[in-house]
């Protein structure tokens, strides 16, 4: 096995990490937004449910959430695909989404709190429903105000994908482990290379969030 | 004086309205009828409940007892029917409250498109006509923060008018403005009044009251203390509270 | 009141999760000596050992402790049961007999956990003096460390349910096989038996849990490791016994310490002659019939 094979290994590892990240990004933003919306809804049951979910899941280690998804859901006979590898991919994405959604929701909630009440009042005054007020006026503004902290949440999630390798997912950490196993003479190089790939991905994300922040900034 | 086609039934009816904030009673025994086409100015000391009165009319504040009817229909509690009713009651706020992330044009087209389900082209056409009317059409593509206060408030009026409301509420529309911008907003309001719009205006601008109002409602401590024609009210107030209040605002 | 509700919910969720992973007997941490028979072997410590030409030995000698890197997580080979101070297993016994030859009693050994990622670095920077940690001798590793031994030739094998029909890797097509993420056995399955559905976790215990619950059909890694799990399963699991690779386990040494390497090789040769090796094997991995100590390779 030479350096070329090793880079192939890392390339497929990076793709594994990226696809986990992308699905979990969509999932966590969707679920996080829903949770944030529930937390500001006028219905006490929804508020309570969202608050309980956030409190429980946010204070559970991600590894445990992964355990629940990877070993608990099959027992409950919840499967997403007949292919085992694909199933594990969905379980891990679900765990990451469920976990990260709490942080997205809390971040968004702080963003919602930062929007002047007059914005929602003006929306209601022209006859927008609660859902429209939230989706057209409050959440878009909340998202824009929380882009920097949301960036941190998303970058943390990128790094959290590394836990998935312990649950039948092949990603960067798997590639690193394989690399170490076959090239014991290059352990330090392989560790540094792994760190560098995460760094590049995270810096890229940071850059995207910087651009978004500049592009979507709200003048007041 | 303004000629308005008065109908039989009042457009806004408030009957024995009570409103509490905790133990504090912000509105007491409010009875007020506003006829179609009528312009009512609400005046009174700070904290007397003017804003609260205004906001109960489109249920931005709920009431604890009594009833409020718009065009004969009782204000619904919540949900789609309330939203529908609100769209018939335009509101202009002291702090403008334009949607900060939307352009001027989008601010005005949003309601017609999302609530009245107007096609985008039609909504835009009407919005541009309204912006033209309030004199900010050339700013249509800008964002609210890029406009002066007076311009923002005129956009806010256009945004409310775009819903073709039956009645317009104004809560101190000029008190957040620099003095040189007050008139540009008042002029728009006077024109509206002359065109027969039913209006409830909380303001201390006596010039406007004299020029455009049919009645002045004077409030103190959550109650309506006096109702009179503007000229009558300003020159010959009946209650001690009104006399006291007027003496204070007239000195500066 | 609110807090208590949250706590209960959290505990319930946690319990569910834990019961999900710990079901049906993950190898019992205290049962690491499932195959152990009789008393622990005692290796005579060489009183007059002198390898002062070896820098590593010299430093260890003046410290009074020999530092050895071993696995803490592989039953039967190198395993530290929960609550125990010292690890146990075949690797540990080999380490002890080598240490005895070098003049160190078991109490003079400091055990350091090593995993795949840190064996070479630990030897290179002197964190450990020796590594006895299911350490397969190969050419890439020889670039940066030296090896004495091999002291055992493991082969990749399969752990299956007692009533399984799987008799070798050829039978794996269409079945699911579990191994540790990134390990050589996992890579071999992926490359040479792509028809098998490979499942990977971070530790073998998860694989064994899956095997016991029927979620996977086989667990694969070096037979020595599998033996440890089979021994703990009360007959529910068996090792197929048809190894399909050669994994010569060596004692890892710092590069270019020829004196130390010769000494460790001598220790292994001696262990063959005086029966220490067999004692070590039978004490930790069970019946040694049919198993032979390999010749050391003094490359
Ligand atoms: N959300 C609220 N919670 C508690 N008290 C309130 C709330 N809104 C208003 N109040 C109180 O109700 C009273 C009437 O308030 P309101 O804003 O209607 O007065 P106003 O006549 O509009 O005064 P100003 O001229 O200062 O705008 C005040 O004493 C105010 O402190
Ligand atoms: Mg007010």
Query: What is the residue-averaged pLDDT of chain A?
Result: 92
Q: Structural class of the secondary structure composition of chain C?
A: alpha/beta
Give me the count of strands of chain A: 0
Do you know the CATH architecture of the domain at 19-170 in chain A? Answer: Orthogonal Bundle
* Largest interface, counted by CB within 8 Å of the partner chain's CB: A-C, 40 and 40 residues
Task: Look at the structure and name the CATH superfamily of the domain at 19-170 in chain A.
Answer: MetI-like
List keywords for this structure.
heterotrimer; B: 252 residues; alpha/beta; 6-stranded mixed sheet; 4-stranded antiparallel sheet; 10 strands; 38% helix; 24% strand; globular; disordered N terminus; C: 299 residues; D-Maltodextrin-Binding Protein, domain 2; 2 domains; 5-stranded mixed sheet; 3-stranded parallel sheet; binds adenosine-5'-triphosphate; binds magnesium ion; membrane (chain A); AA_ABC_transptr_permease_3TM (chain A)
Structure description:
- Chain B: Its main location: membrane.
- Chain B: It is an enzyme of class 7 (translocase).
- Chain B: It catalyses: a polar amino acid(out) + ATP + H2O = a polar amino acid(in) + ADP + phosphate + H(+).
- The complex is a heterotrimer of chains A (220), B (252) and C (299).
- By secondary structure, chain A is mainly α.
- Chain A has a domain at 19-170: MetI-like fold.
- Chain A contains nine helices and no strands.
- Chain B is α/β, with parallel strands linked by helices and 252 residues long.
- The longest helix of chain B has 16 residues, at 179-194.
- The radius of gyration of chain B is 18 Å and the shape is globular.
- Mean pLDDT of chain B is 91; it is low at 1-6.
- Chain C has two domains: 1-153 and 248-299, 3-Layer(aba) Sandwich (D-Maltodextrin-Binding Protein, domain 2), CATH 3.40.190; 156-239, 3-Layer(aba) Sandwich (D-Maltodextrin-Binding Protein, domain 2).
- Chain C has ten helices and twelve strands.
- Chain C has helices at residues 2-22, 55-63, 90-101, 119-124, 139-142, 184-192, 204-213, 223-232, 258-273, 276-284, and strands spanning 66-70, 73-74, 78-79, 109-113, 130-131, 145-154, 156-161, 176-180, 197-201, 218-222, 237-239, 247-254.
- Chain C has a five-stranded mixed β-sheet with strand order 9-8-10-7-11, with helices on both faces. Chain C has a three-stranded parallel β-sheet with strand order 4-1-5.
- The longest helix of chain C is centred in the N-terminal third of the chain and has 21 residues, at 2-22.
- Chain C is globular.
- The chains are: A mainly alpha (220), B alpha/beta (252), C alpha/beta (299).
- Chain A binds chain C through residues 1, 52, 55-56, 59-60, 64-65, 67-68, 71-72, 74-75, 83-85, 88, 165-168, 170, 173-188, 191, and chain C through 5-6, 9-10, 13-14, 16-18, 20-21, 116-121, 138, 140-141, 143-145, 176, 181-184, 186-187, 197-203, 206, 209, 215.
- Adenosine-5'-triphosphate is lined by residues 21, 26, 44, 46-52 of chain B.
